[in-house]
Amino acid sequence: MANNNVLKGPAPTVDQINADRITQLANQYWAPHTSENHLPFDHKIVEDIYVQEIRGSSFAIRRIMMLEFSQYLENYLWPNYSSGASSHAHMMSIVVMVNEKFRERVPAWEPFKKRPDHFPAFFHQVLEACLDEENQVSLREQTALLVFLNHCFNSMEVDLIREQVKRLVSLSMWVSLQAGRREQELKAVPKWRKYWKLIKKKDNPEMLEQLHWERTFLQRIMIKFMQLLETVEAEGEIEPEKVHFCERFLELVIDLEALLPTRRFFNTVLDDCHLVVRCHLSNLIKRSDGNLFSQLLDMLKFYSRFEISDETGDPLTDHDMTQIHYSKITSLQKAAFAKFPDLRSFSLANVASVDTRETLLKHFGPLSNDMLREIAMYLNLVPPIGNKEREDWFRYDSEFLLELLVSRHERRASQLEALNEMPLYPTEEIIWNENIVPTEYFSGEGCLALPKLNLQFLTLHDYLLRNFNLFRLESTYEIRQDIEDAVSRLSPWKAEDGSVFFGGWARMAQPIINFAVVEVAKPNIGEKRPSRVRADVTVNLSVRREIKSEWESLRKHDVCFLITVRPVCNIGTQFTHTQPFIPQVGLVYVRGCEIEGMLDQNGRVMEEGPEPKPPLPGDTRTFRVWLDCNQYRTDMDLASQGKEDVYETFNIIMRRKPKENNFKAVLETIRELMNTECVVPDWLHDIILGYGDPGAAHYSRMPNEIPTLDFNDTFLDMDHLRASFPGHEIKVKTNDPTKLVPPFRLTFEDVLKKSKQNGVVDEDEKPHKVIVVEPHVIPSRGPYPFNEPKKNTIPFTPTQVEAIRAGLQPGLTLVVGPPGTGKTDVAVQIISNIYHNFPAQRTLVVTHSNQALNQLFEKIIALDVDERHLLRLGHGEEALETEKDFSRYGRVNYVLAKRLDLLTEVQRLQESLCVSGDVAYTCETAGHFFLYQVFARWERFLSRVRPASGKVVPVKIISNEFPFHRFFDNAPKPLFKGQSYEEDMEIAEGCFRYIEKIFTQLEEFRAFELLRSGLDRSKYLLVKEAKIIAMTCTHAALKRRELVDLGFKYDNILMEESAQILEIETFIPLLLQNPQDGFSRLKRWIMIGDHHQLPPVIKNMAFQKYSNMEQSLFTRIVRLGVPTVDLDGQGRARASICNLYKWRYKKLGNLPHVEYWPEYKIANPGFWYDFQLINVEDFNGVGESEPSPYFYQNLAEAEYVVATFMYMRLIGYPAEKISILTTYNGQKHLIRDVINIRCATNPLIGRPHKVTTVDKYQGQQNDYILLSLVRTRAVGHLRDVRRLVVAMSRARLGLYVFARVSLFENCFELTPAFGQLTARPQQLYLAPHESYPTERLADAQPRGSPHVAENMPQMASFVYNFYIEKVQAMKSMYQDAQKVWQKPGDHKAITPQRFVPQHPGGDRDTDSEEEDDRVKEEQGIVMGKGKDNGQKGGSGPKEEVVVEMIVNEVDEANEENENEGMSVDNE
Predict the structure, then answer these.
(1) Is 942 exposed, middle or buried (0-12, 13-18, 19+ CB in 10 A)?
(2) Which of 186-195, 873-882, 1406-1415 has the weakest average pLDDT?
(3) What is the per-residue pLDDT for 886?
(4) What is the spatial distance between Cα 111 and Cα 90, in angstroms, rounded to a whole number?
(5) Residue 413 backbone zone (phi > 0: left; psi -120 to 50: alpha; other: beta)
(6) Are 1273 and 1184 within 8 A, CB to CB?
(7) Could you tell me the pTM of the whole model?
(8) Which residues have a Cβ under 8 Å from the Cβ of 661 and sit 6 or more positions away?
(9) CB 172 within 8 A of CB 211
(10) Strand, helix or coil at 497?
(11) Is the pLDDT score of 1343 beyond 80?
């Protein structure tokens, strides 16, 4: 299967493309850049291209790619399509182009929006060709038509498409059912009978024939398929086209069954056609080339019997399914009893004894063909004999009828039971099975037996199951890469005595010295597997200290793999990643295990905790591991049948990077969710499945919308508030301007009115939006300066305020945040406002990455949130840039330290009040002290300063009577100003609040005196104390069971980076708590993300493209039409750079500071323009190269980019302000190598901040970006506009793009950005006389004329001479220059030593050059350069140090390199 999906042959070069016939025709007729000279439309051209280029080339993907890329569909086919007049070739050309767009994953339906009135006729022409009653359409064409039809059914969210396809799958399609079956179905659901009569009544007699044709379309195409399928012989040759057609047909039917709108009525028609049974009996599934067909058929069986009510769309429980099964069997028994005396024993047996396949075959197998047919007719499974001529496609043979009766009535295996018995770790049989885990190089041509993530799902069970299967397979694919990498590094060879000799070493794998199973616990009641299996693994860690500590710090629940290899290669054999892996290393078995802990000297597991583990002597370490109980049972069953005992053979243990090793916990979590009653809030349930009104969960539609909200410090002043609500009338409760200061409480009168009318709003009445503003004063918290609350300083824009308002209200809030629009600031303000408005509620904060979580947390800390209410879970808190520790144990230590501080304060208070006794000993004694001493004195004070008689009290009495003067001796003086009674009284109350808070906190901390262990204390903190709990989505999936068992509760979820989180990892955080009385307590779900940037990284292209696994839940519900708040003011990039990507968003403008901050006003020194597209031609006749599949490199671009970086460093740019990005892993590695050779160790230049791929740099930014686009033959994956948006939006001040202009300027999807880039010169314009920083303004041109870099060799030569000049200028001070200057292009394109993933976000490196060097050292490749001189992401050592490092031999260097420099120029 994998072989079908790899594109064969090299991609054409640009010269070949330009000389190509397609390109010449495009230039004459439709290419956008020759639009002035186009010839008129000629239908012969369409015929000719179809016959020669598409059909004539057997639908060759290269020809179709070129046609589609040339904008054939947009500019020629669709604009000239005419209803009823266009030919078959014209229609087929459109179909092929649309299919190609879907294969390339670029928007396909946009062109049709221009002439939508022609679409119905086009669609009808497609349907006619599908049925092909005159046999004029080839099988290859019919397959293309099926694929197109499937794309239509999967694009129901597009109005134009939905209008056409819904007619094919509505209730009226039941006209194709047998009359008896139809009557049976209508009887079961009376409301459908009513609709059926209505349809009959409304039908227009003149249109009846066409309507009937449409309604029976799907039935007729199924009949056609079955007739074709039954022509397949059991043996002999078979046309591959026939197999492909059958596979694609099943794919179409599966997709129709897997969506409720298409399934509802189609499922009955499918059942009535008995398509599944006829496929099951076909010869194709018995053949080896029917393997994929057989897997697809299993999927179809699963969906055709899916546990859902087609009538209501509700999920059916196991009990419901059992009832349906029983009713089918009993109706069969009744039929047998009434009509067939021979079956009396069957009729009277109990159901459980006759509902297996074996017993059914025993009872029905001996019956004659006539009897079987009578039973089938009685059950309305086949039509009466009289209808045989009309319905001649039915089968009546005994084999078919018997299978039909048995398959309908046999007991179905519980799917959940099978799932619960499935081992979660993949074994060698799955890991290297291409049918289950396809190869990386998937082109998108064929179909696969994989679940798809569509817009809609049948039930939550279906949703979880599809995600479970895909997540499992994607993890298996990553595990395969890890095993291949680690085991081949160990170099297992066969020793002379036949044992295994390890000739290499690996950081992530160790040879096993000893392995023993130490415990097999008895099965739990009702289960067959052992309840626990434990084993001990011993390894010898005689490795570098840091690697040893990595092994020793394996945590509980970390997953490792036990591997058996029996190599056949002799010592010294080289391993290569381009050859099949298993034969090279002789891999036999792979089993997963989970670490329980490392054993100490006494053989006990060392417990984890905040304290470091005690050191162990020697290098031998033993780990206790848990094995998979299901897998162990299976293996032992096989061993008892004489097979080898797997557990006596292991000789390698492999660990994985913790970040990528969460698969088992996630799978266990999904499996647990499928076994529990998934309680998603009612207001969210339908939206997650993709049904109902997409706006139903918007706050304005929620029944519990809150009319009055405290916006706290959201607004800076009254003017800011007025500006934040355009279109609203603002009323204020006070006219005193001195009192109109934040915080403000806002009442929305339209909401108030709606709640009074119980949510009923008059549609015709235009809502008059009035906001009543009430300023309120936060009560004083004490007399000290640190008691002043921290305030927000950001002037939020109106859309940001709308997002904050939506986030405060109950319901679902989606915030789309383009690059630089302050998503994090909005998120933090929402969190703060929820915290102040609803102090009893708890908020869960979830992000995709630790980096984003830490950014969010640092901003929360800066707001007015009490830090005792903050908690950060997971292992990323180490990177928090704060002195404070917000992890669980860090918070416990904080509470314990805070308790001591507070008790010290209590003691000071006790002394100030001259009270005897040890009241500050515990929280409990402090509580008594407060009640009997402190509060009593406060009440006495109040009775004196607020006499009940209402007498006026002199101001000074407050100061005289105040009982806590001595305690507040250390506060700013004077404590009481003595000017007004109200002011002094507020000060006195503030002081008491300060004291009261001490005792309130101590009361909260009292539990810490009762709980003694750190673990118990941290649990208490999580469940009771913390109000804002932050974690990554990975941590949520890993720890779900633990959190639920602890009784964790929360009311609100806020998710950042939602568009980068997998569907399932977004869903799991909704269910980290047990429901209360069968209801979820979740009130708000706020998702902040940007679906116009890159989706989650899925490394396997088959899962990414075919299964659409890269779809995030955020993107899906945006596609469904759920209302969003689109942030519309960016503050990151210069306005000119923002123009390169703002076209992708609804309404994106610039914040004012982008115009007036000094850095934006100043030009980029040394450059003529702030952004430029630089054309890079072939160097020595070579453009892009591909030393191994998908490892794309372009040496000319790499040298050009590095030369530009060196130029920037030489004129003074700091290295940490420059990042180099590229779109391919191969180019990233090449650029790093060029930097290592050219400048990494040169103290004047050093390394840039980062060299990485665009995908890995999402979410980050830098002042200056140098971007290499690599490709010169085909645009590649930059056609994904999301990647373009990320690439264009990383730069703040300067963006310089190096690419083959002629290729990218013609790409339809990229036109809006490349149109602006190509408007400027395409050679690099420099101003070398300037230095960084400059005073030249951004809109001023540099003085003089530009230095134009014509090409890469000239730029390299110029930079070299420029460098020599710079060093010469410093000659009297400096002592050395680089002696040997390599010609650019001398560096050879590199072939990867290891497997490098195709996905640019999937490379396993850490994006740090030191890591790269380390890996090369591991491989035994010595860099030849000392890496200690260059600093990561820095600008090299400071100038003073440089003076000592450069030796004064510039003239010598000049002489040595003079010829080289000249030859560079001439190249």
Answers:
(1) middle
(2) 1406-1415
(3) 78
(4) 15
(5) beta
(6) yes
(7) 0.88
(8) 558, 559, 655
(9) yes
(10) coil
(11) yes
